[in-house]
Amino acid sequence: xxxxxxxxxxxxxxxxxxxxxxxxxxxxxxxxxxxxxxxxxxxxxxxxxxxxxxxxxxxxxxxxxxxxxxxxxxxxxxxxxxxxxxxxxxxxxxxxxxxxxxxxxxxxxxxxxxxxxxxxxxxxxxxxxxxxxxxxxxxxxxxxxxxxxxxxxxxxxxxxxxxxxxxxxxxxxxxxxxxxxxxxxxxxxxxxxxxxxxxx
Length: 200
Description:
5-stranded mixed β-sheet, single chain, alpha/beta, 6 helices
């Protein structure tokens, strides 16, 4: 059992801030002390195969939360606020699981001894101390894990949308502002999941 100075550190990151369509996602992860950190990296720097393998292990071993803010809400509150909201919701989702996870890992649970680190230069509103770290997804394993959880989940959603709206090619670009995505939007109009507040 850890001593009184033990702190649980939650990493937070989002995925899908730049796309022109679909939701923004966020992950929140607390890693166990014995997690194999060598499999982690910024999700964008991992191959799809390595990212999915890491995600599987994160889901099995870590305490994680996941949340989405949809395209229409992004249009209403803007992408920065939507990203912060997604992180806050992901933290809440993680917290629901944390007491049982701590018990299973023989770790002390104390809501007053949780700290969070968010990737970027802005912090979501959380019920615990939180700080922002620019390029945190390349410095802190817990943020790397959150990045992986957020990206893999969002990618799967965009693959599902590709089946619904195959003409937009979401399986290939996941809604990012590629020339092909912009071209089809101008030719046939925005898709039902388009972020209309974004210039496409």
